[in-house]
Specification:
CATH topology: Rossmann fold
CATH class: Alpha Beta
Number of domains: 1
Mean pLDDT: 81
Distance between the termini: 99 Å
Low-confidence stretches: 21-26, 109-114
Structural class: alpha/beta
Strand content: 5-15%
Shape: globular
Helix content: 25-40%
Radius of gyration: 24 Å
Number of strands: 6
Largest sheet: 6 strands, parallel
């Protein structure tokens, strides 16, 4: 061995001794934890407004926030606060740094029956009209400045159903609105996108089914059993008494129910 090699080895040994001095074996354990691609967590505290929820709505909030719940089928009449409760839970999870983003999918955004192509502009421009229900709920629950912050920082995202394939949506609350108009193929696509540490909320009003190939009722019933609940997939239903939007809506729905 050359003099240069001996000096090099002595130098490396001294460096290793100094580096290891005072270190425990645990300081050098390789990190083998699974890397989860996700959005960064919010950097501010959100001022989420608490609404006068009904007992049934509070029951749903507890169910959604249960760590074992992964997928929620939620149906109910117009005005029964399916969207507002879902967005409230999503904002609470965002505020507690449990997730990095809220993903909003409205079934009418993109499907074989409701294509986006006829709308002018790029995908972001085309999505804006369909994001209106989400933004409406956001502004009801948060100050306008914080809604703008979440939008600008990419913590709110809208995705058309047709663009979901191949995605794995991690660390997110995925809210799917108007799911009563989904076909079996669309429901399979949507439900199989859920990734690590995410929750999927499927919102429906069975009185507003607009397409012939809706599979929502049959899929809801197929998952309404103990085996699905054991897997974290639950079903929940609001009634007329849970309507918060306006008292007259209760009368409107009851009257329509009498029409043959």
């Amino acid at each position: 061995m050359s003099k240069h090699s001996k000096k090099k080895n002595r130098f490396e040994n001294r460096n290793n001794e100094n580096f290891n001095k005072g270190k425990s074996s645990t300081d050098f354990v390789e990190d083998k934890s699974l890397h989860i691609p996700q959005k960064p967590k919010v950097a501010i505290d959100l001022n989420v407004r608490i609404l006068p929820f009904t007992e049934k709505q509070k029951e749903l909030i507890d169910l959604i926030q249960d760590k074992n719940t992964k997928v929620i089928f939620l149906k109910g009449p117009a005005g029964s606060s399916k969207s507002i409760v879902s967005v409230y839970c999503a904002l609470e999870a965002l505020n507690k740094k449990k997730i990095g983003e809220i993903i909003y999918i409205r079934n009418a955004v993109e499907s074989s029956d409701h294509p986006l192509g006829y709308l002018k502009g790029d995908l972001e421009s085309k999505m804006q009209p369909y994001l209106a229900p989400l933004m409406d709920k956001m502004e009801e629950l948060l100050p306008k400045s914080q809604v703008n912050y979440l939008t600008e920082k990419g913590h709110l995202r809208g995705i058309p159903v047709g663009f979901l394939r191949g995605l794995s949506l991690n660390c997110a609350y995925i809210i799917v609105d108007e799911i009563q108009n989904a076909s079996k193929t669309e429901l399979i696509t949507i439900m199989t996108r859920i990734g690590k540490f995410s929750k999927l909320l499927l919102l429906a009003d069975e009185k507003q089914i607009d397409v012939r190939n809706s599979a929502y009722k049959s899929v809801f019933n197929a998952f309404d059993n103990q085996e699905s609940r054991d897997q974290g997939i639950v079903t929940f239903e609001f009634g007329i008494d849970d309507i918060m939007r306006e008292e007259v809506i209760k009368h409107i729905i009851k009257t329509f129910d009498t029409i043959k």
